[in-house]
Amino acid sequence: MNGVSKAYAMTGWRLGYCGGPPALIKAMNLIQGQSTSGTCSIAQWAGVEALNGPQDFIAERRKEFEGRRDLVVSMLNQATGIDCPKPEGAFYVYPSCKSLLGKTTESGKVLESDEDFVTELLEQEGVAVVHGSAFGLGPNFRISYATSTEALTKACERIQKFCASLK
């Protein structure tokens, strides 16, 4: 079982594949067929081309994303009150803002949830992240590191500044 989203930079295409005994595949198809719609033919053909095309770029891109991940994890762990575990894969980190709940922003807002945290971070520092509760992972928040190192550095510096300003 695998997918094309990460290795081939096809995020959002929602295309996966698997192989196995016919009885297992039939059962998987039955369950999947009742829970989601089918993948469009364009995404299917794009996936075929990705799997059959050159593969040499994957190791280079993986190393690049590992560097971005490590930068973000390091910088977030330097922010007051943030605990950011290092993920093994994906394009996201889910740092915890739990120890910042109950703190007050410069504007006087008391942070009562991860949603408050991300809203105030956007308002005060212009950094857009997603509250973890949207994924069942509160009181964490989600940051994608599928962008430039420069943008990630600036965002993490702003997050550090925001966290340091809380009282």
Question: Could you explain how this protein is built, in words?
Answer:
The chain has 167 residues and is mainly alpha-helical. It has 2 domains: 2-52, no CATH class; 58-165, Alpha-Beta Complex (Aspartate Aminotransferase, domain 1), CATH 3.90.1150. Helix content is 46%, strand content 7%. It has 5 helices and 5 strands. The chain has a 3-stranded antiparallel beta sheet with strand order 3-5-4, with helices on one face. The longest helix has 21 residues, at 57-77. The chain is elongated, with a radius of gyration of 19 Å. The chain starts with a strand and ends with a helix. The mean pLDDT is 93.
Unreliable stretches covering 5 or more consecutive residues: none
- SSE order in H/E notation? EEHHHEHEEH
Structural class: mainly alpha
Coarse shape: elongated
Q: Helical stretch count?
A: 5
How much strand? 5-15%
The CATH architecture of the largest domain would be: Alpha-Beta Complex
